[in-house]
Amino acid sequence: MTQISEHTTGQSLTGPARTDGRAADGAGGAGLAAERVRWSVGGRLILDDVDVTAPPGALTGLVGPNGTGKSSLLRLVAGVERPDGGRVSLVARPGAPGEAGDSEDLLAMARRRRARTLAFVEQDAASELPVTVFDAVLLGRTPHRSVLAGPTEDDNALARAALERAGAGDLAAREVSTLSGGERQRVHMARALAQQPRVLLLDEPTNHLDVAAQLATMRLVGELAADGVTVLAALHDLSLAAATCDHVVVLAPEPAGRVVAAGPVEEVLVPEVIDPTYGVRTTVLRHPRTGRPVLTFDEV
Amino acid sequence: MSETATRAPAPATLSRGRLLAWLGVTTAALLASVVVTVAIGPAGLTPSDVGQVVATRLGLGDLLGLATPDRLDDGIVWQLRLPRVLTAAAVGAGLAVCGVVMQSLTRNPLADPYLLGLSSGASLGAVSVLVLGWLAVLPVAAFVGAAAALVATLALATAAGRGAGGLSPGRTVLAGLAVSQLAAAATSFVIFWSARGDQYREILSWMLGSVAGAQWSSVLITGGAVLVLGTLLASTGSVLDAFTFGDTAAATLGVPVAAVRWVLLIGVALLTGALVSQSGAIGFVGLILPHAVRTITGARHRALLPLSMLCGATFLMWADTLARTVFTPRELPVGIVTAAIGAPVFAVLLWKGKARA
């Protein structure tokens, strides 16, 4: 599989599961709703009745000081850990007033089906094995085929398309361990894309990346959101969240992770929310070109 | 990882055609090696003598119009060498596939089938009955020792991980180390306290690993274990691939991580236990073979697992042939030969892999 052709495959990745006939797992954008999620480790409460919603086709940022359980929440939503209580569901159609909407319990969903619905890019995923970029991306097809079967030509084509989509087509034959941080992030995004998810969870996608790679990563995430993927990204950089997110959920640490504010960026990333949560003094400016909020901070 | 990482040539990722070609070549090499290694030795047999005996024994003599083989040849081939060669093949194949699975499950390139304390546990069981002179129950004692070590390792790893992620690779490795060291200390104590005279030689030979004296019962046990458990393990390629970037990534690809880990660890332990009960703890095969074969296949387990089995079988047959012929009439435990070949090969792989690491 060393030859990766340049031509595009005609298969759609951008609208995950929109046009490729996999209607069972995808029929348009679906939002994500975590309700009253509670989780503790070794008797210590990490998340205390956390409610987070991520609307379909938008980029929702999950922010908060270190230790507020951002990563934990993503792992619970991804089904990697089981919460002690609460519900995580996929909301295909919110209910109109007086009517029940369509929602599906993600935690009760069979593993493989969940993996076709939701993809998770964790922080700093690395491998000791001499795995090529193409094979790494091909892993994203795992939940779409039988456990005993090898990758099909469709799988190869979709992996190639995912690599192109993530701007990493030229890396296909490289070994993952030889890539730079930004390149590796693109490969992991491509692996997630190859899963054709309706929901994409990202844990600190810009960690350890230089500023150009940060912008490239967030541009890709924004494009995916615009194409109908529901994106929930844990971000520690408030300025980046202000510049790129559509919605923001703020977690506060005391006594355990809980939501202190949630909503559109303009309403949530304001001094009244940030200052008590982070213990800083925030000034909100306007970006002269985009008009988006630009945050600066001073020590109290 | 540095931004200026060396741009080494990408490892070969085998196409389907080339994989089939490799499987064909290694299978042919395996079958040819059986005939040739059985022929090698002091009696001056030729491969066609070997073929004659085997064909006659399999009831094909009349069909092929073969003459009745010499009785002495028949005895050497059918009673002495063939069981030994086939046992070596089964043990080599089994250790290699277990090595691949262990390296993948623990994501540790130094992992081998003995990582869970299996060989130390088996040694303790075997040495205990050797000093008592109960040779007949040696395989059973070795298997029980290996199983006990596995239970101890998994119990320790699980207990240590309770409420903190359960059976993690790191904790499994460390628990295996603790159990190994304890079993090794107990083994040394037993030897020091009770062994007499020529028992030392027997004990050392067992601990280094040897297939000398293998009989058809050994072939049945090791071959049966490899056919059942080895094939099962070798079919898990896609699942092991999903572990490439760790447990979390595997879980989000739809793999039931905890269940898979338990099933594979227990499969490895049962297979390794069965092999060790017959051959002792032959080193380096389970460590080196996976690394060597990975230079051909890359990291894809669907190619790596079956090729490692085939190469492991051939490798151990030839290593054992060297062990019994180099210093004729004296025999070496095959574990010395695998270490003598394995250590330099490992050094070379390390050296060549430098650009990638």
UniProtKB/TrEMBL annotation, chain B:
Pfam family, one: FecCD
Any one GO CC term of the record: plasma membrane
BP GO annotations: siderophore-iron import into cell
Membrane topology: Multi-pass membrane protein
Keywords of the record: Cell membrane, Membrane, Transmembrane, Transmembrane helix, Transport
Transmembrane segment boundaries: 20-40, 82-102, 114-135, 141-161, 173-195, 215-235, 242-264, 270-291, 303-320, 332-351
GO molecular function, one term: transmembrane transporter activity
Subcellular localization, as worded in the UniProt entry: Cell membrane
InterPro entries in alphabetical order: ABC_BtuC-like, ABC_transptr_permease_BtuC, ABC_transptr_permease_F420-0
Top-level taxonomic group: Bacteria
Family recorded in the similarity comment: Belongs to the binding-protein-dependent transport system permease family. FecCD subfamily.
Name the UniProt record assigns to this protein: Iron chelate uptake ABC transporter family permease subunit
Phylogenetic classification of the source organism: Bacteria, Bacillati, Actinomycetota, Actinomycetes, Micrococcales
